[in-house]
Hints:
The structure holds two protein chains of two kinds. Chain A is an alpha/beta fold. Chain A is 36% helix and 35% strand. Chain A has a domain at 33-136 and 166-186 and 206-229: Rossmann fold. Chain A has helices at residues 2-28, 66-76, 85-91, 105-112, 115-124, 207-224, 226-233; strands at 31-39, 50-55, 82-83, 126-150, 153-174, 179-200. The model of chain B is unreliable at 23-28 (pLDDT under 50). Chain B has helices spanning 2-29, 59-62, 81-95, 128-131, 173-195, 200-208, and strands at residues 33-36, 49-55, 65-68, 76-79, 96-101, 114-126, 135-148, 153-166. Helices cover 40% and strands 32% of the residues of chain B. Chain B is α/β, with parallel strands linked by helices. In chain B, a hairpin with a 4-residue loop joins strand 7 (135-148) and strand 8. Chain B has six helices and eight strands. Chain A binds chain B through residues 59, 61, 90-95, 97-100, 114-117, 120, and chain B through 41-47, 133, 162, 186-187, 189-191, 193-194.
Amino acid sequence: MVDETMTRTPRSLKHVTRLAATVLLLGGCHSRTIIDEHRVTPTFVGANESIVVLGRKTNSQYEPERDFINCVGQSLTGKVRVIPQQEFVDTMYPWFEAMTAPTNVAQLGALLANEVVAARIESYGVRYIVWLDGNTETVSKMGSMSCVVGPGGGGCFGFAQWDDEANYEASIWDFKDRTLSGKISAETKGTSYMPAVIVPVPLLARVKSNACHSLANQLTSFFTDDSQTALAQNPAGCTANVTTC
Amino acid sequence: MTAVRDRQVTRACLSRIATLLLLGLLGACSRSVGLKITAVVPPPLIERHPVTIGVYYRDDFRNHVFVENSEDRPNWQIETGSSQVALFNQLLSAAFEQVLPMQHVYDGRTIVKGVIAPKIEEMQFATPRETLQDFYEAWLKYTIDLYDDQGALLTSWQTTAYGRSPDTLMSTDQVGIDAALKVALRDAGAKFSIGFFRDPGVRQWLTKQ
């Protein structure tokens, strides 16, 4: 019995040490997200209505990454009906290309004055457009790492650390009312580490992914908030029994 | 014996992996470009005009090839002719009731109320190596001539299309240019579908039909 205990203790100690190291390392790479929501009008997505999530493309040095747009769209799927970006842009070609897409709500009215476009939007059942703008970038880097490869093998030594910042803004346009329904912004900051003793171990802060999920959660609540949907369905505060409000 | 054989097998595997990696790296470093663009652009959602027009593709348009052989761009040969013809066939079919192919800008057919003849004025590219940006770029400059039913030039509408594609890990100039050019062709289609019909000369001609 004594021998068994003696053999068990170091093993459990090893496990505890490994666990502690893992927790410390994972705790080390962290990210923090700040969400800001500005609602202009109540929102309501009807049973036959859908939303579309689009990246705001400009000819500047960056445009929202396709994977980020897809991530937000996929995170919303199941909660509201979402039309995939490429499908919508192809169906509406050439009206939602980089240089032709409306840049503000006022231009939406002009676009929908085109009967062909209005009919296609109507048949699609698009109620809201979510325009995403922003990007993720590395703002600072520290540390150094060197890798060596030789006939006998190779390895890396050193420590690297970098800070990522993700800034995205979602503008929600109401196709039916041709108004701006609201804006949601997500700002995520995170620090990633990469210690290397022979093998580099990346401890990533997953900044873009966290920004995507935080933004998607806020958008879900924006579209499914019961008090807001009730207000959107019944803007003057009418009750079912009242015929004129 | 088994250990020795295992070591030999491992060495052989490692040597194959190293060879593949080396070939991959050499491929990534290759700067020659030999491309035939096959762009697919969606049919445009535009108003169809109840007019029969003719389309005249000049030989240099129909068989358009971008050729360059310099130190920075060795053996670049980019064929876009068939894609250009396919693009304009699609755009014109969406914009007009009937589109007839022409051998000249005028052939005496009375059904043809006007003839459209596109022309590529210029084609330019930029690689991440040249611009130090992390994307490939392509520009296409077009002139679209519109002739009346007697073959007289009514208007020449010009536009420049732009396309960009990100530079990815292990990407080659060939892959990057191909992607950027496809975006540029899509942009050209969008600009033609909207811009051409806003040209005063084109509008005036359309109101007469």
